[in-house]
Structure formats: C-alpha cells, structure tokens
Write a structure and sequence with these properties.
By secondary structure, the chain is α/β, with parallel strands linked by helices. About 55% of the residues lie in helices and about 10% in strands. It has a domain of about 200 residues. A hairpin with a 5-residue loop joins strand 8 and strand 9.
C-alpha cells in the first residue's frame, strides 16, 4: 500500500480514537480502563489501515468506480482506463530507450526534459527518505541517551531496598520520579525522614503498575512515526493518566484528601518540572487538572456505559480506515494464486474477465507500478513482488491476451515471461505478414540487414525494425509487446521485425 495513503489513514484513525478520549473518557474517573484504551488506540490505529475488509459487490460499487473509472468491455479499447489515442504507449519501449538508435527510426521519441523530471522525482524521494531516517535516528539516539542516563544514575548513587522497590538516593533532587521499580529520591530528605508518606505511595504506584513500559513503548512508536503529531498528544495523555492513577492510589490509602492536595500545591510551587521523559515525575501534571480529578466523584455505572461506546467506535474505524476488497475479486485472486502453473501454449486463451482486468488496473494504480512516467527509473517490479497482491497480479498478467496486456500500460520483465510460446510466435509472424505490403517485404528482403541492439530487451539483437503507420497503434500495438518477450532464438527466426511507432 502506498506509504502516504497508509500514513493519512493512521493519522485519521488515531485522531478519531483520541477525540473520543478527550471528549468522553478523559472526563471520567476510570483510569485503568483509560490506560488500556490509550495504548490500544495507538496500536489499533497502526494496524487497522493494514487490514483488508471484504465486502459485497453492492457495497463497493462507488469505491471500485473511483479506482477503475470504467465499466466497459475489454473489446472497447478506446475507453480502457488511462488509454486514449494520444496517450497510447507501446509496451516494447516502455522501460528505457535503446542504446543504439538510428535517426530514421521513429519508434522512440523522447526529450531530455522527461529524463530531468524523472531524476528530480528520484532526488525528492531520496531526500525525503534521508530526512525521515535522520530524524528517526536522532530520536532513537535521544531515547538511548535517556536510558543510559537513568542507568548511570542508578549505578553511581546509593541505593536502598524496600519491599519490591529500590530507592535511588540522588543529591539535590528537586522532584521524585520513577523508572520501572527504581524510585529516585532526594538523599538528604530521605535520610532525615522528610519525605512524606503520600509521595512514597504515589511513586510506588508508578513502579507497581510499570508505567515506564507505556512511556518506553510510546517513545519507540514516536521514533518511527514522528510524522504524525497525534502520537505526541497520545504520549501527553498517557502520562497524565499515569498521574491520575497514582493520585487515586494515594487518596484510597490516605484518610486526609485535603492534606494531600496541600502537599501537591507545595511540591508544584517549590520543585522544578524538568525530568527525564522515560520516568514518571511527581510534578509532571498541572495543578488544576490533578485537583479537579482528585475531587471528581466516580460513577461506575456511567463509566461502564460510556466505556462500552468505544467498541462500536472501534468497529466504525475498521469500516472507515481498513482497505476494502470485493468478495468476488477476492475469489478471483485466490483462484489465480492457486494456479501455480501457466500454459502459454494454449491457443484458445480467452484472457481474463472484465472484473479481473478492473482489479488488475486498480491495484497497479494504487501501487503506482509504471503508470506514472516518473516511476520508470525505479525497480517497480521488485516492489510489486514484495507487495501482498504481487503474486496474484503477475498471474493475472500472464493469463491476459496480448491485446489485454498491451492495454494495461505495464510490462512485466523477463522474470514473468521469458519467451513467446510457439503459437504466439506464429501469431506474430502471421499478423506482421498481413500488415506488411508486398513492397515493404521486397525492400526488406533486398536491403542489407542492419543489426540493432536494444538493451531494453535484455541486450537482444534484431534487424532494424520496419515501422508501420500510426493508424495501427490502437489495433495492433500489441505486436510490440510480443517482440519484447521474444527470445533471441525466436528473433533470429523471425522473417520481418515490425513495430508500431510510439507517440509521446
């Protein structure tokens, strides 16, 4: 699937799920459910756009029309997607231009400007890739640095154990914080027993529930998905919810809620908020939000009913942001994949159905395999082979008639079809013999053979081709494709090498 299309779907899906949290769940006192919801929402928004939703033909009529833009039979070639008289392009010269061309050869007419545009396109792609991995590398380096700093502090400072927790005593620490089961405290205050019990309960709750795992997971996701600003909002709300969980634990174990609120107020005023992002700091959350949530009344029944709404919301996200696949197309694709052998010698090959042709065109356009001239320099066939639909599309291409192949604007390389069948080779010669006039045949028979080496055709060598008139482009353009797939042995046995000129 196209990377930009996937990114947009991920952002939209995560945005919808986060909006529900902000407007509904974030105002409820159901902190453990909210923790699960936030983490699950992030992961779901990454997975849902990769899913395929199989739907009926009626449900995908509009969707399929957007992709294929045609409902005409294969035979009506003038209206096949992306094909018209001015844009028709023979597949034989679709990849690159021949190395050795003659000035009288009208087959390929290209301009330097097209090559420049292609190079600029590749440069933009390379620049974008370099920028992405540079920023990703920086974020991963920042993450590893934060972890290193924490473990260095653990190693070089005095430690003392209490139950399942380890207190790390740091000199001149303004605000306590927690990383897994390590609780960082000010050494002087700890030794003088000046740290309130409520603060210890608060930090122990962070350690007990392993809130550092959530933060570490989000930092990893952001390192690779930093292009989505919504992920940074998720990280913010996850950290807030951690503080709500810890505060709630203190309130449940302490009999004096007002005293704890005064303690929070004092810590906020006297301590710095600067801390390591992988740790849970006592002073991370703003005073107003913490006091509001501490004094909010919990309503379990209301929380349950509103929490249940997240299930239909998730289903709606699947319907909206998963990829759609028509059930009939899926059956056709499975049938193609199940066909492990292909017999090109079948003279009665009727090609593929209109539905299969539309599916091929739609998938090739979605992957931008060779439809965009700017893509011609890239290894599009390798990308196709690595895609989930690659095998089925290659098999569909093999099953097409030559006329159908020529109408797709895509040419599979020699890994797909390494030579013509004997029947197809005879068909080429019969078609060429019918199109050539007696005068053209006589001139070619009497003229010296001029060797023409085309590196597009796997360095195959053939005679200087006879070029037909432009009027044959639409009806007989497929003979270029047949010549493209001839083996050198077949080329040597071919009496007349003929091509239809291409207009760019």
């Amino acid at each position: 699937m196209d990377k930009l299309f996937y990114l947009l779907r991920c952002m939209a899906c995560s945005g919808v799920l986060l909006l529900f949290y902000i407007l509904v769940l974030g105002k409820l006192k159901c902190f453990r459910f909210n923790r699960f919801y936030l983490l699950f929402s992030v992961l779901a928004s990454l997975v849902i756009p990769l899913l395929f939703l199989q739907v009926s033909q009626q449900d995908t009529t509009f969707y399929n029309k957007l992709l294929t833009k045609t409902d005409l039979p294969i035979e009506q070639t003038a209206n096949i997607p992306n094909i018209n008289d001015n844009q028709y392009e023979s597949i034989a010269n679709y990849d690159n231009q021949p190395v050795d061309t003659y000035s009288s050869n009208p087959i390929v007419k290209n301009t330097p400007s097209k090559q420049i545009v292609s190079n600029v396109h590749i440069s933009y792609a390379m620049i974008a890739t370099c920028v992405y991995w540079t920023i990703t590398g920086f974020l991963l380096l920042q993450l590893s640095t934060s972890i290193t700093i924490l473990f260095r502090r653990i190693a070089k400072n005095h430690k003392t154990k209490s139950d399942n927790y380890t207190f790390v005593l740091v000199n001149s620490l303004s605000s306590p914080y927690t990383f897994f089961h390590y609780i960082f405290l000010d050494k002087e205050k700890f030794l003088n027993c000046e740290i309130q019990e409520e603060i210890l309960i608060h930090e122990k709750q962070h350690a007990k529930e392993l809130h550092a795992v959530d933060l570490l997971l989000m930092r990893l996701i952001i390192a690779f998905g930093w292009v989505s600003p919504i992920l940074f909002l998720y990280q913010k709300y996850i950290r807030e919810n951690h503080e709500y969980l810890a505060d709630n634990s203190v309130i449940q174990k302490s009999s004096n809620k007002a005293q704890y609120q005064v303690l929070i107020l004092g810590m906020q005023q006297n301590c710095s908020n600067k801390t390591i992002q992988l740790s849970n700091s006592f002073n991370f959350l703003s005073l107003k939000k913490r006091l509001t949530m501490i004094n909010r009344t919990s309503k379990p029944r209301r929380n349950f009913l509103l929490g249940i709404l997240s299930i239909p919301l998730l289903l709606c996200c699947v319907i909206l942001f998963a990829q759609r696949k028509n059930e009939n197309i899926q059956k056709a694709e499975n049938k193609v994949i199940a066909t492990t052998t292909f017999n090109p010698d079948n003279d009665n090959n009727t090609g593929i159905t209109q539905e299969e042709f539309n599916y091929y065109i739609a998938e090739m356009k979605k992957g931008n395999y060779k439809f965009d001239p700017k893509n011609r320099q890239g290894d599009w066939f390798k990308d196709l082979q690595n895609s989930p639909e690659g095998d089925s599309l290659i098999h569909l291409y093999k099953r097409m008639t030559w006329k159908q192949k020529s109408l797709t604007q895509t040419t599979m390389p020699y890994e797909a079809i390494d030579s013509l069948s004997e029947a197809d080779w005879n068909l080429y010669n019969q078609t060429v013999s019918k199109l050539l006039t007696d005068k053209q045949k006589k001139e070619r028979d009497n003229s010296p053979h001029r060797q023409f080496k085309n590196k597009n055709m796997n360095s195959r060598i053939y005679d200087q081709p006879i070029c037909l008139e432009d009027k044959y482009i639409k009806k007989y353009g497929y003979i270029n494709l047949m010549l493209h797939y001839m083996s050198q042995h077949q080329i040597n046995r071919t009496p007349y090498i003929v091509m239809v000129p291409i207009k760019y």
